[in-house]
Amino acid sequence: MATMRRTRDVSLPGITGVARLDRRASRLLQRLHAGDVAVIDISDLDRATADSLIAAGVAVVVNAKPSISGRYPNLGPEVLIANGIPLLDGVGAEIFSDVKEGTRLRLDGDVLYSGEQQVAHGVRQDQDSIARLMAQAKDGLSAQLAAFAASAQQHMLREKELLLDGVGLPELGTRFTGRHVLMVARSYDFKADLKALKHYIREFHPVLIGVDGGADVLRDAGYRPDMVIGDMDAMSEAALRDAGEVVAHANEHGRVDGLARVQDLRIEPVIFPSAGTSEDAAMLLADAGNAKLIVTVGIRATLEEFLDAGRGGMASTVLTRLKLGGRLVDAKAAAQLFQTRISGAALIMLAAAALLAIAVVLVSSTAGDSYLNILSDGWQHLVDRLRDFFS
Predict the structure, then answer these.
(1) CA 15, CA 64: separation in Å to the nearest integer?
(2) pLDDT, tens digit, for every residue of 328-383?
(3) Phi, psi of 115, rounded to the nearest 5 degrees
(4) In this structure, are residues 311 and 151 in contact, taking their beta carbons and an 8 Å threshold?
(5) Virtual CA dihedral for 383, 387, 390, 391, nearest 10 degrees?
(6) Which residues have CB under 8 Å from 235's CB, separation 6+?
(7) Which residue in 42, 224, 237, 298 is deepest, having the highest Cβ count within 10 Å?
């Protein structure tokens, strides 16, 4: 029966794949496999999540909510479409009850099927529709910036003791004083930026911090994080076990996502409650520890990226960056500043120059004649021995 069902699915039009559903993207990303149909529940899909979906090799993305609501220009849908991944929008929250994990789904046009039965209907996005929605979203950008100003003021009032005086910062085992810090998140261009910093890491041995999924990024690249921080559900068990220190980022009410999961691994994390993002919490810890320089990989750096992440975390991020000032450097700038001091070509030229100098000394000196005669006799002896062996 299973063989017959697979044969019938192949003959039907559209794109097929196994359904993976979760309202929380961090949990869903850990279960995805190549060719899956990822069912998400994200209004204004951000680029970081879209990049992770692309890296997982999903066949289709189905969103219960609009991927572009029009509140601000978010980058995720554009990235998905540019990479050839179909996006079906606004199918409704009912899909989480109507479709079970592991069900084989098929997307044909703007309709989602299980076999021949329709299970959801939405808006199939393409380059033209995304461009129209992005243009509309940019028209409301001034209103979003005004809302950001109000949000920044509220955040400053709520977190002023933490930002100004460090009240509420936990005691850590990780030492930052006088050291460089490399902070990695699974977001914008993280793979390319981390690879570009390999010489910097080898030379300066920075404190390695994995933020949320950045813990697994470091581990996959062959590094052992000195500290991981963030949502405990966003990190694999292997990354949690390998970390030198685990810091659970709690919200302002003290709630920690995935705390029981970490405790089941017999790991007792340090709890750090704050209203900001996990990235901001990591920066504040490094700043309080008197880090010499903080280099960020996969962390928002431009206005467009701040807006893409949503208004909620934008105020916290901007205020934290203002506090750190010139000690905070983006990975792309760091890669330019800390290039290998001696290139491979320069090393070859240096070796050639040294050999040439030795040759000149040997040829021009009396002692050099003796050395040359010894080398010549040795070479001739080796040639004679080889000739005798092969004959």
Answers:
(1) 18
(2) 988 888 877 776 554 556 557 666 766 666 665 555 555 555 555 655 666 666 56
(3) 70, -120
(4) yes
(5) -170
(6) 210, 212, 213, 215, 216, 228
(7) 298
In sequence order, what are the beta bridge partners of 107?
A: 15, 112
Residue/partner pairs of 355-358 with CB below 8 Å, 24 or more apart: none
Residue owning tokens 């068990």? 237
- Dist CA 85 CA 279 (whole Å): 29
Residue that has been written with the tokens 């010489």 in this structure? 199
Give the tokens for residue 247.
């810091």
Asked if 122 contacts 60 with a C-beta cutoff of 8 angstroms, the reply is: no
Residue 191: partners with Cβ closer than 8 Å, 6 or more residues away: 217
Q: Where are the domains of the chain?
A: 2-136, 141-337, 344-390
Per DSSP, what are the bridge partners of residue 211?
185, 229
In angstroms, rounded to a whole number, what is the distance separating the alpha carbons of residues 236 and 261?
10
Closest CA to 226 of 212, 240, 243, 242: 243
- Lay out the sheet containing 207-211: strands in order across: 270-273, 246-250, 227-230, 207-211, 180-185, 293-297, 328-330
- Residue 274 has φ and ψ, to the nearest 5°, of -160, 155
Interval 70-83 mean pLDDT: 90
Residue 327 DSSP code: G
| DSSP structural state of residue 162 | I
What fold does the segment set 2-136 form as a domain? Answer: Glucose Oxidase; domain 1 (3.50.30)
The Cα 270–Cα 10 span in angstroms is 51
For residues 197 and 333, the answer to whether their CB atoms sit within 8 Å is: no
Identify the weakest region by mean pLDDT among 1-15, 106-120, 122-136, 271-285. Answer: 1-15
